[in-house]
Amino acid sequence: MNELVMALGWLGIYAPMALGAVASAIGCAIAGQASIGAMTETDGGYGRFVGISAFPSTFVIYGIVIMFTLNREVTPENSPGLFGVGILAGIAMLYCGIWQGRACASAINAAKEKPEIFGLALAPAAIIEGFGVFAFVFALVISGGISG
Amino acid sequence: MSDRDAYTALVCSLPNSERLFIAKKPPLSRLRLDSRLKALTVADAEVLARLEHVLSWNEYAVDITDAVALKRVRDALKVIRQPALRKIVHERMEMRTAMSALRLRRDGLAPPAGAFGFGRWARHIPAHWAESCFGLGAALPWLKEAQRLIESDDPLALERHLLDTSYLMLKRHAARHQFDFEAVAIYVLIWNIFDRWAQSDASAAARRFEFLAHAAMAQLGDIRFEGEPA
């Protein structure tokens, strides 16, 4: 039983990093495809499109930081805490990354014909980033209470 | 990535559908549209072809019978599995059914026996043949204006009204689909409406040209050529 509990602890440590990487990969792929499509339709502003499509890459960075914060000697006592914080933070990163990719794709699609709305079109993606930051910061705060 | 993001690049490579109607020249030719649509999978391309085969007037011969047209719709619905696209087919065919009934009634024909056309109102329309808008004024709000235009014999305005109504129906469905196959299919259908819109302008221009040509020819009798006896 202890082995299973400790395995969950390790899962919790690595989950934010793995799920953050998946989130960034999917989010960047969605937004990246949108930027490629927009480039075929427009005559300029390519750099901005590529820049937006890299927005979701932050989630893997948050995941790495959470992973290092949670990284400690895994014991049966602290494994449930590591698992709970790590998995839930990872899921939050995953959803934020995917949906931020979609929000970026929409922004690119709208801004390709109306460059003047470029900044405003990024507002939904920025708000999603804010939710990701909440999950990140409070994962760091709450991990301080886990023993070890 | 899921199906909802399947055609992100394709959708972003198309000009905004609203631009189709305000641009002075077409922002996207059919040739270029077809070139972009090569990104579709074989299965999706087949569904789109069926959809256009059913909904585009260009795909119908002038002498096509009701039975053949209805069979074409039913065959297409066996292939079209996407709920939004099926709904679009139903809505458009119901629209055509109501318009066809209005034209028959204008020509003084008796109500068809049994079901007429396609969709929810196939039995309702013959049963309410004498009523204004077949009693469907509330269910089909666009029908009242269509009835007025058909009675005032204004085919161009009627065509515009029907294109407007079809466009608004498609935009309503488009709001729920952004980067998936349905979004691409709806875009193509809107492009087809734009195409017919542009063609209706060409038809109006042709009619105007014919009128002016007739007027000019009518005055030919007054022209006296040099050396011609008075």
TrEMBL record, chain A:
Signal peptide residue numbers: none
Topology of the protein relative to the lipid bilayer: Multi-pass membrane protein
SUPFAM superfamilies, per the entry: F1F0 ATP synthase subunit C
Pfam families listed in its UniProt record: ATP-synt_C
Cell location: Membrane
GO annotation, cellular component aspect: proton-transporting two-sector ATPase complex, proton-transporting domain
Regions crossing the membrane: 49-70, 82-101, 121-142
Superkingdom assignment: Bacteria
Domain called V-ATPase proteolipid subunit C-like: residue spans: 11-69, 83-142
Entry keyword set: Membrane, Transmembrane, Transmembrane helix
GO molecular function: proton transmembrane transporter activity
NCBIfam families: PRK09621.1
Protein's recorded name: V-type ATP synthase subunit K
Native source organism of the sequence: Shimia thalassica
From TrEMBL, chain B:
Source taxonomy: Bacteria, Pseudomonadati, Pseudomonadota, Alphaproteobacteria, Rhodobacterales
Source taxon at top rank: Bacteria
Protein name as it appears in the record: V-type ATP synthase subunit C
Annotated organism of origin: Shimia thalassica
